[in-house]
Amino acid sequence: MTTGISTAPRRRSPARTFLPLAIAAWLILEIWLLTVVADVAGGLAVAALLAGGIVLGAVVIKRAGRRAFKNLAGTFQQAQQGQQPTPQQPGRGNGLTMLAGLLLMMPGLISDAAGLVLLLPPVRAWIGRRAARSLERKMASAPAGSFGDAFQQARIHYPDGKIVQGEVVREDRPGQQDGPDTAYRPPLAP
């Protein structure tokens, strides 16, 4: 009896194969670079560089978090006033800034350099656009019935993002009208 399920092993993606090797190589390179800098400048200089990276990363993450909270509060105010919230441009968000702060906080000179480069607005905008295009391609090629397909369908049916106020009234259940559910309920939104 055959079930139609293949027993052949699945092919491993290149990312799953090379990502652990890349992380190990990066860690070895970070440690080697720290020892080279410690030999040239001294252990105190390396400790100062690492402490400065942690402090700078914490400041960057704190500022990006405050800016994200301010943007969220502004979006809620616009929605309460009945205005259409303005969408964020790719690369203008705070996620990449927080990633830059996290890279700065990680011990190592390569991660610090990557974090500093990511703080530059043109680099952040370029990476944001690339990430948005990649996400769009992944969503467009999502199989039917997946989360990506549902997201794409929602964008197709409601491209402007308008919210229609309303209330659902069910009278199809006999015997439910004379119970405690007959009390007045105000609508969920003003």
UniProtKB/TrEMBL annotation:
Q: Which residues cross the membrane?
A: 18-38, 44-61, 96-120
Q: Which organism is it from?
A: Streptomyces avidinii
Q: Please identify the protein, giving its name as recorded.
A: UPF0716 protein FxsA
Entry keyword set = Membrane, Transmembrane, Transmembrane helix
Location of the region described as Disordered in the Swiss-Prot/TrEMBL record: 166-190
A Pfam family = FxsA
Which segments does the entry list as coiled coil?
A: none
